[in-house]
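Researcher: Please translate sequence to structure tokens.
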Amino acid sequence: MKICPTCGTKLDEDDIFCPECGARVDKKLKTPFEKQRMKKISNFLKGFIIFFLFILIVFILLAFVGTMIARR
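Model: Translation complete:
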């Protein structure tokens, strides 16, 4: 049994459009397990990007402070 990702209506397996809201539904909708897995991957990537940006900012600040000290 498929569920419309837009309105949550239960769908028949061969439905292409939701009879309730008219939204197009994919042939293969993600299962709750697949959605959870994709969310974990997405959260990991967000965390990695934030960590990388933090390290980059720290290095930029250290380089700036180093040049300020060298000028004295």
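Researcher: Any highlights?
Model: The chain has two domains: 1-29, 31-72.
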